[in-house]
Write a structure and sequence with these properties.
By secondary structure, the chain is an all-alpha fold. It has one domain: Orthogonal Bundle (Lysozyme).
Length: about 190
């Protein structure tokens, strides 16, 4: 299948309504948090921190993302966005691993799109285009902002925040899987 056909298919799926998911993630306060996530912030304290991050995480991500430019882009935005909302970047990588297996063109059965499986109603509510869901910077920014919001709402309780992110509150299967990936594949210094 050509890239154009793949993008057309994704666009068609993104435009399909998914009321059950929309009802779970249309918290008005969350909308305000995501809307405020427009301004970029400083990513790394210094060049040393940046080089260590890339040296440590790039070989791990190479198992899933073959293109070195795409890997660098993912790692850069994961670190920047995680820092911006005070979320461990390794947790963001674990979520991506479980949600999309690092496929920025992934579309779930519920219509969630991209690396972090962001629901397609968000771009519309924020005055953006749905094609932005497959772009690494925008997808990582929206997904990380949502994850950070749920972590704050759940006072740092990873299982509950992850279950909210996934729309599976009260069912630990998803959160257990993400935490397992965090510990076994993405923990810094592991």
């Amino acid at each position: 299948m050509s890239r154009r056909a793949t993008l057309a298919g994704i666009t068609a799926l993104v435009l399909l309504p998914s009321p059950s998911w929309a009802d779970r993630q249309t918290d008005p306060e969350l909308r305000g948090v995501i809307a405020a996530a427009i301004e970029p912030s400083q990513c790394f304290v210094d060049r040393y921190e940046q080089e260590v991050w890339f040296a440590y995480m790039d070989p791990r991500l190479a198992r899933y993302v073959k293109d070195p430019e795409e890997r660098r882009l993912i790692l850069h935005h994961v670190h920047c966005e995680a820092r911006r909302v005070n979320v461990p970047p390794e947790l963001v990588l674990a979520v991506m691993d479980v949600e999309s297996r690092f496929d920025r063109y992934a579309v779930s059965y519920a219509g969630a799109v991209g690396l972090m499986q962001v629901m397609p109603f968000w771009p519309t509510q924020l005055g953006m285009g749905n094609e932005q869901l497959i772009r690494i910077p925008e997808n990582v920014r929206m997904g990380t902002t949502i994850l950070g919001y749920y972590l704050r709402k759940e006072r740092g309780n990873y299982p509950r925040a992850l279950q909210r992110y996934n729309g599976s509150l009260g069912r630990p299967t998803y959160s257990d899987l993400v935490i397992d990936r965090l510990v076994s594949r993405w923990r810094y210094g592991h």
